[in-house]
Amino acid sequence: QNPSALLDCYLLADEPPDLDTARRAMDQAAQQARRAADVVGRLRRAVERPDPAASLQPVALQDTVAAALHLLEPQLRRQGVTARVESRDGSICVLADPVGVEQVIHNLLMNALQALEQTPAGQRQVLLTLWRDAGQGLLSVADTGPGIAPELVPRVFEPFFSTREGGLGLGLNLCETLVQRMGGRLQAAARAGGGAAFTLQLPLAPE
Asked: Chain-centre distance of CA 99, in angstroms?
């Protein structure tokens, strides 16, 4: 059964019922359902209309980051993760598939949260940095997890390769494919102070 629906039942069964929390849980479930519908619609369009350029449009990168963090807020709170956003160059608008960008950012954040499960409480942080460079909009998603061994960095986008026990090794490969179809790049790096950083690069939208 849907965990959100079960949670709603428990909250409503309380005496008195916790209506505010139940409403927030139902709103969260509705947003997740809308996002899933968007992803399914995107995949359907990709089959019916294989030209990737047809779905490209101006996308406000800060807004997409905020939406992804909002969807993951309950998990961030549950894991005790501090997420910080820094923008070096004000508003950044890239030319991309809106749902594709959201999916990539969501997956990068999920990878960071999974890595932080191995980090002591109080040290779990995610830093999202946005900036412009040479006609490109960039977003870095860095975490304070165990990081990636330098010799494994070149392999992280290979299909079926995973640094996490039990991982399928498909998420990053699919993200890289999505980004390349939008005319961008996705890179990985081991952080000098520990942790990993993934950088999304997409062309800036024409002003």
From this structure: 11
- Residue 13's contacts (CB-CB under 8 Å, 6 or more residues apart) are none
Closest CA to 108 of 3, 37, 179, 31: 179
Per-position pLDDT tens, the chain of length 207: 444 555 556 555 666 666 676 677 677 666 666 655 555 555 555 445 445 565 799 999 999 999 999 999 999 999 999 999 999 888 999 999 998 999 999 999 999 999 999 899 889 999 999 999 999 999 999 999 988 888 888 888 877 666 665 555 567 888 899 999 999 999 999 888 789 999 999 999 998
CA nearest to 194, candidates 143, 121, 122:
143
Number of alpha carbons in the 13 Å side-chain half-sphere of residue 194: 10
Which of these, 28, 9, 26, lies nearest to 17 by C-alpha position?
Answer: 9
Q: Is this model's pTM higher than 0.85 or not?
A: no
